[in-house]
Amino acid sequence: MRLFILILSAILLLFQYDLWFGKNGYLDYKETAEEIAMHKAENTKLSQRNQVVAAEIRDLKDGVEAIQERARLQYELVKPNETFYRIAKENKDNR
Fold it and tell me: Once rounded to an integer, what is the mean pLDDT over residues 58-86?
């Protein structure tokens, strides 16, 4: 009877080891859950960035104002009969 209890205890310990430390065990589960959470956060951030880019594309396709604004800011273009003024901030060191 004592031998039977020892064998059952050994089998139980073997199963417990496999449950906690084996392939697809608890530690693998926790690691995978952390990776999933990290990927979900990254996907959320990328989804927000995609929405911003999609809105900008839609605005560039549909709106003339966005194209004019981009041309003015990036290339300093002006309309005919329009005067361009650049206001430079004065450095405190030059006083």
Answer: 79
